[in-house]
Design brief:
Elements (H helix, E strand, L loop, with lengths): L2 H8 L12 H5 L6 H28 L1 H6 L7 H4 L4 H20 L5 H20 L7 H21 L5 H29 L12 H24 L1 H7 L8 H16 L7 H7 L1 H20 L1
Helix pairs in contact: 3-6, 3-7, 3-8, 7-8, 8-9, 9-10, 10-12, 12-14
Length: 294
């Protein structure tokens, strides 16, 4: 019994995705509101445990396919390091921990918990059936990040703008298509589809989808920075300068996807690619400087 195997099935590295819960706080200018920050952190933990519960179910459901996959065959359930019964037990425990975190929210437990429960049920359906359908699969992944925003907004009493919702959906849709490109490349090399729906994608379609979503994401962000309501809210018209980092970030991710073929795991890209980290840090610091200092 190796503790590392149990950590692998929970995938704590993927919890970085749940920082999207903090975005309403950041874009709402309430990052230093202690009570709102505490609620956002609790919500992020609740989302992380719910996500780990889903990862357990996914590994159980996909065990047969994973055993035939050159990389996923090393997952704990597929390799036999963690039994299916134990994986179910971990799934239930993580769900309970998520519910406990939600219960700690002072006055929005019902609403925030409802969003997380919907996310959990939607992703169970995704793992069991919906991910078999091309285009629907990436849209559900992107919608999952919008639900993270919604939960963060409800927990902190911050109303979401249409811009943050659109940008979140678009950027995560872009990254989801880039991830599917990795599957298409593997299918062309091995002659076997890593996913059942991979046969409904090809490089021409994926490349066009990546280009379209990246372009619309950039335009949406620029429109956000120059929109009258945003300028009025932050009392500055310099936000458009941060568009430079968004453009460079998108280009870098496309380079990693098309040239280096390293888009199979977006979380790994964020955690390991120094160029991407520098771009994100520069954007973050510039945005912070403009809205909180200037």
């Amino acid at each position: 019994m190796n503790p590392k195997d149990y950590m692998k099935i929970l995938r704590p590295k993927q919890w970085v995705k749940n920082f999207f819960v903090m975005l309403p706080l950041f874009f709402g200018g309430e990052l230093f509101n202690t009570q709102a920050l505490l609620s956002a952190v609790i919500t992020m933990l609740a989302y992380s445990f719910a996500a780990s519960s889903i990862y357990c179910f996914n590994d159980i459901h996909d065990v047969s396919d994973d055993r035939r996959h050159p990389v996923k065959c090393h997952r704990p359930v597929a390799s036999g390091a963690v039994s299916i019964a134990m994986a179910y037990g971990m799934m239930i425990v993580c769900f309970i921990l998520s519910a406990v975190c939600v219960a700690l929210l002072p006055d929005t437990a019902l609403q925030t918990g409802g969003v997380i429960l919907f996310y959990w049920l939607l992703n169970l359906a995704y793992c069991a059936w919906l991910k078999q359908h091309a285009i629907i699969d990436v849209c559900i992944v992107a919608f999952g990040f919008v639900l993270r925003l919604l939960a963060g907004g409800l927990a902190t009493h911050i109303e979401l703008s249409k811009w943050i919702v659109l940008m979140t959906f678009l950027i995560t849709l872009f990254m989801s298509f880039a991830k599917r490109r990795d599957d298409v490349i593997r299918m062309e090399k091995t002659g076997e589809a890593p996913r059942k729906n991979t046969i409904r994608y090809n490089l021409t379609f994926i490349n066009q989808a990546i280009t379209i979503t990246a372009s619309v994401t950039l335009v949406c962000y620029i429109m956000y920075t120059v929109s009258p309501e945003v300028i009025s809210h932050f009392k500055t018209d310099y936000l458009y300068l941060t568009s430079i980092f968004v453009l460079v970030g998108l280009l870098r991710y496309i380079q990693l996807t098309v040239v280096d073929q390293r888009s199979g795991d977006p979380t790994k890209v964020l955690l390991k690619d120094r160029f991407t980290q520098l771009i994100v840090l520069a954007w973050l610091l510039t945005f912070l400087l403009i809205i909180y200092v200037l």
